[in-house]
């Protein structure tokens, strides 16, 4: 499949996902901008999130279940509500934005990585050589167990501190999305 | 600089770092194996670690200071000792192994990424196109604040649980180093 055909197919999938509300809203302008370049097409994304995960046992993410998931600042009471529903190993996580972008050729991928790095996304690189898929992401993270077998292991005040840090780290990582948007806009001119 | 010359220089640096004890010991056999391939040379590495970091303020890793750092299972009492020395925002972190490997050409990089992924290092990709530097790493992490301004915010039992999870996640991520070693050994035959 040539690039134009490949991009057309991927764009169709993206448009459908948008219509179904499956794309994080706050990242849509950026994805649209990326897709407006002939040489790029987005293949998947998450705008960054805070989540409460219930895991059946240590590390088994395949069977993990989200008890709560937020792409923006979250309130402590909502986190607490989600944590209380957990029955196994309950984790509080904050993950930074992650975007996968297929590129027409290696030099497009190179330019994208350079712009991503300059925008603060220091964990960016080519993860697949088929269609030169670039992963753009950064390092802000929070990840800890907060309850075991129905019992919360942190005091309310400690859990509040964790949520506060999660919110601040999420905000910081989302700032980078704005920088990336601006850098790509400048490239457009 | 051609590849042979580049590799020779990088290997010199690696040998010197080994002599100075600056390379994590448990990863040396793997690095030696990687460097025994004509098409690869390691440029930096960490075998995975648990650490206690004192940060001057939110997220400012540049000025962060390690109060404790362990490349293997750590005992709770040693963690507690390090946490108690913290004065600002004290974080407990567990990071998986990370290895940077320059490759002779794109097809070597491609093979390396494929082997890394199969060994469980699901966060592997080309991070620099100059010398095709591949970053090999995975997703096991634990990262949380444990003390603020000299005050520990977790109960002793909660902190013990965190250290226990950090140890188990570190062990799990280090298992992948063994799988990578075996896969590379098989490639050698």
Would you kindly provide a brief summary of this structure?
Chain A contains five helices and nine strands. The first copy, chain A, is of the alpha+beta class and 189 residues long. At the A-B interface, helix 4, strand 6, strand 8 and helix 5 of A face helix 4, strand 6, strand 8 and helix 5 of B.
The interface involving the most residues is between: A-B, 31 and 31 residues
Helix content estimate of chain A: 40-55%
Provide the CATH architecture of chain A: 2-Layer Sandwich
Query: How much strand of chain A?
Result: 25-35%
**In CATH, what is the homologous superfamily of chain A?**
tRNA wybutosine-synthesizing-like
Spell out the helices and strands of chain A N to C: HHEEEHEEHEEEEH
Residue runs with pLDDT of under 50 for 5 or more positions of chain A: none
Q: What descriptive keywords fit this protein?
A:
five-stranded antiparallel beta sheet, 9 strands, homodimer, 189 residues, SSo0622-like fold
Can you walk through the features of this model?
The structure is a homodimer of 189-residue chains. Chain A is α+β, with helices and mostly antiparallel strands. Chain A has a single domain (3-188), classed as tRNA wybutosine-synthesizing-like (SSo0622-like fold), CATH 3.30.1960.10. In chain A, 42% of the residues lie in helices and 27% in strands. Chain A contains five helices and nine strands. In chain A, a hairpin with a 2-residue loop joins β8 and β9. In chain A, α2 (28-35) runs parallel beside α5 (156-188). The first copy, chain A, is elongated, with a radius of gyration of 18 Å. In chain A, 40% of the residues are buried. The A-B interface holds A 58-59, 106, 109-110, 113, 124-129, 135, 140-145, 148, 153-155, 157-158, 161-162, 165, 168-169, 172 and B 58-59, 106, 109-110, 113, 124-129, 135, 140-145, 148, 153-155, 157-158, 161-162, 165, 168-169, 172.
